[in-house]
Amino acid sequence: MIAFSFVPHADDPFWSPAHPLEHPYRPEHPELTGADFSVSFFRADVRLVVHGVDLGLSTRGLPVVDFALMLEYARRELETRGDIAVETSVSGHVFSLSRGGETVTLTTNYAPRVAELTWTELRQLTDRAKAEAYRLITTAHPELRAHTWLRETVGAPSTA
Description:
The protein is built from four helices and eight strands; from the N terminus they run E-H-E-E-E-H-E-E-E-E-H-H. It is an alpha+beta fold.
C-alpha cells in the first residue's frame, strides 16, 4: 500500500484564498508563471509511505508542483532507462529510482531507507501527485482552474 499526501505550509500565503494571485516582485508581469508554481509558491511537506517504508519529506516547504513534475519526469525517463536520480528544484533533495522488470526501487538522499513498488504503482503515484497538487491549488484558488499552464501541465488537459 502507498500512502501519499501533501501537507500545505500554513506560512505560505498563497494557500490562503484571500491572497492575491500575483507575483509580488513583478509588477510589470504579475501573472503566475510555470516557474512560480514550480519554484516559489504553494509549498507543502510530502507524506509518502511505500509499503511501510516512510519516505516523507518535511522541509521549509517544497512546491507541490515541483514534486509532482519531478516524479513525472523520473517515471518517463525510467521508460527507457534502468535508473535515474532526480532532484527537487528548491531544496536539493534527490530521489533515485531504478527499474528491474516490473519492480522500481526508490531511495533518497535524506532517508537511509529503500522502498520497492511496482511499475504500475509508480505510474499511479505520479498521477496522484499531479492530481493532488492541482486539486489543492484550485481548491484554495478556484480561479486558477482557468490558468492554462497549470491546467495543461499539472491538471487535466484542456478539451478546447
